[in-house]
Amino acid sequence: MEVHQLRYFCAVSETGSFTRAAEKEQVAQPSLSQQIMKLEEELGVRLFDRLGRTVRLTGFGQVFLPRARAILGEMKAAKDEVAERQSSVSGPVSIGVIPTIAPYFLPLPLALFSRKYPQTCITVVEDVTARLMDRLRAGQIDLAILATPMRGHDVESFTLRTERLLAILPRAHHLAKKRKVMLKELRDEPFLLLREDHCFRDTAIEVCKRARVMPRVVFESGQFSSILAMVGAGLGISIVPEMAVEQRPDCAFVSVGDDRASRTIGVVTLKGRYLSRVQLAFLAHLQTFAQKEA
Amino acid sequence: MEVHQLRYFCAVSETGSFTRAAEKEQVAQPSLSQQIMKLEEELGVRLFDRLGRTVRLTGFGQVFLPRARAILGEMKAAKDEVAERQSSVSGPVSIGVIPTIAPYFLPLPLALFSRKYPQTCITVVEDVTARLMDRLRAGQIDLAILATPMRGHDVESFTLRTERLLAILPRAHHLAKKRKVMLKELRDEPFLLLREDHCFRDTAIEVCKRARVMPRVVFESGQFSSILAMVGAGLGISIVPEMAVEQRPDCAFVSVGDDRASRTIGVVTLKGRYLSRVQLAFLAHLQTFAQKEA
DNA sequence: TGTGATTGATAGGATTTGACTATGCTAGGT
DNA sequence: ACCTAGCATAGTCAAATCCTATCAATCACA
Question: Which pLDDT tens digit goes with each residue over B223-234?
Answer without folding.
Answer: 999 999 999 999
